[in-house]
Amino acid sequence: MRNPETLIDAPNATPHGNDFVAVSWNLHKGRSPLGFQAWQAMQRWVQSIHADAYFLQEAMARRLPAPVLSPGFGARLADPLDDVWHCQATEIARALELQIALGPNVFKPSWRHGNAILSPHPLDPGGRWDISAHRFERRGLLVARAAVGGQSVTLLCAHLALTRSARLKQMNWIAHWIVKEAPHGPLVLAGDFNDWRNDSVPLFAEHGLHEVATLLGESARTFPAFSPALALDKMFVRGMKPVEWIPPSQETAWLSDHLPYIARLRLD
């Protein structure tokens, strides 16, 4: 059986000029679909992409922080302390000298995980908001702003619920947040939407956000990684032109249960 730690064959997604390469990836807590530890291979793959922004979900904690009680749906969460929230995303950021914004979501007795935004550009963390639609799935919206070529680009990372009713509630809340907090300027919203029905595409289009792969006529199926049949992962943009949806190498199917979603964008 092949060891996922030895498999690296990422596409060449180096940006040029005004191009902006964005990657969204559910890390599956650092394990392959077969349960192998794939963390080091994931880190090497991320390093090979040279993206302008990485939107990571299910980044697993290496040591256990104290529980953070949810203040309720739509409320801002307290910022995590670096000395108690050290996760796989912080390991990537430190190894590759990237800026980072963190948003821990799930706190269990023996494991913790959450969202992260990484970028080589100056990054201003914009906070974390609770979008947990019910007590069985803890979810958050992570916000950051990157300074790219003299422009401020709003970056939003989300991991939505498994049930459709909960997802619709979360999508509408995110859309409301964008209208209120980031009504203008370049914006990228990416993550694991669990949205195989594509409810998010028309919903966010009403607010001027377009799904990259959909606009380019690509299927962008990312799940399950070994035989992708569902387009669960999404990337919405405003003030940026989708140039290319980059099919991930099949080697990445050995690294997580989701394939990474890779897009080349261009700042207007």
Count up the helices. 5
Low-confidence stretches: 1-15
User: How many β-strands, per DSSP?
Assistant: 13
Return the average pLDDT rounded to an integer: 82
| CATH C-level class | Alpha Beta
Task: Summarize the biggest pleated sheet.
Answer: 7 strands, mixed
* CATH architectural type: 4-Layer Sandwich
In terms of DSSP E residues, the strand content is: 25-35%
Helix content: 10-25%
- Helix-strand pattern, N to C? EHEEHEEEEEHEHEHEEE
Cα(first) to Cα(last) distance is 46 Å
The largest beta-sheet arranges its strands as 3-6-7-8-9-11-10
Any idea what the CATH superfamily is called?
Answer: Endonuclease/exonuclease/phosphatase
Structural class: alpha+beta
Oligomeric organization of the protein chains:
single chain
| CATH fold-level label | Deoxyribonuclease I, Chain A
Word description of this protein:
It is a single chain. The chain is of the alpha+beta class and about 270 residues long. About 20% of the residues lie in helices and about 35% in strands. The protein has one domain (about 15-265): Endonuclease/exonuclease/phosphatase (Deoxyribonuclease I, Chain A). The chain has helices at about 40-50, 90-95, 165-180, 200-205, 210-215, and strands at about 20-25, 55-60, 75, 100-105, 110-120, 125-130, 140-150, 150-160, 185-190, 210, 235-240, 240-245, 260-265. The strands form 2 sheets. Strands 3-6-7-8-9-11-10 form a 7-stranded mixed β-sheet. Strands 4-5-2-1-13-12 form a 6-stranded mixed β-sheet. A hairpin with a 2-residue loop joins strand 7 and strand 8. It starts with 18 loop residues before the first strand and ends with a strand. Mean pLDDT is about 80; it is low at about 1-15.
